[in-house]
Design a protein that fits this description.
34% of the residues lie in helices and 17% in strands. The protein is α+β, with helices and mostly antiparallel strands and 169 residues long. A hairpin with a 2-residue loop joins strand 3 and strand 4. The longest helix has 15 residues.
Length: 169
């Protein structure tokens, strides 16, 4: 003879399907409105951040892409926006190891600006800080380039360069 347990389960009733996150958010907002809480959402478009684009077949990891987005978002703190930013080197080619740095060419225009160069280094440090543990992680190395940059160097990095950001017009 089998005994059937008549114990009532605690917690939420099993519905047989998970509630999607969008539906949970909709229900949460409805409960807040029922209590009289006014919801206000403000969406601001950031033209600097919207200009960051990666190729669909990029070899960069999602963490590297996020660090580069954070780096490019910091461009608005510079006195003048750079013309464009591009990734080059072993990480862009796909031949990197865990100790390789992420080289970022930042095209700054014609006149050399040492203040902008030091700010770029600080932005790179700040953007990649959350992706470091010990000796390993993402190390952004900004390389400021001007219109009078050595043509041989520009040609060498141009072979494996992936443009990720162009200044919004």
């Amino acid at each position: 003879m089998e005994l059937i347990s008549a114990k009532k389960k605690r917690g939420r009733p099993a519905t047989g399907r998970a509630i999607p996150a969008a539906e949970r958010a909709r229900r949460y907002r409805a409960r807040l409105r029922a209590r009289g809480v006014r919801l206000k959402s403000v969406m601001r478009r950031d033209p600097v951040l919207e200009a960051v684009r990666f190729d669909p077949d990029t070899l960069l990891t999602p963490g590297e892409q996020d660090a580069l987005r954070r780096f490019c978002a910091g461009f608005r703190r510079l006195a003048r926006l750079p013309q464009r930013a591009a990734v080059f080197g072993s990480r862009a080619r796909g031949g990197s190891d865990e100790r390789s740095d992420l080289d970022v060419a930042v095209f700054l225009g014609t006149a050399r600006d040492r203040d902008a160069e030091s700010r770029l280094s600080a932005l790179a440090e700040e953007a990649a800080r959350r992706y470091r543990s010990g000796r390993y992680g993402i190390y952004l190395r900004p390389v400021p380039l001007y219109s009078r940059t050595d043509a041989a160097f520009a040609a060498a990095i141009g072979r494996d360069m992936e443009t990720i950001w162009i200044a919004p017009k």
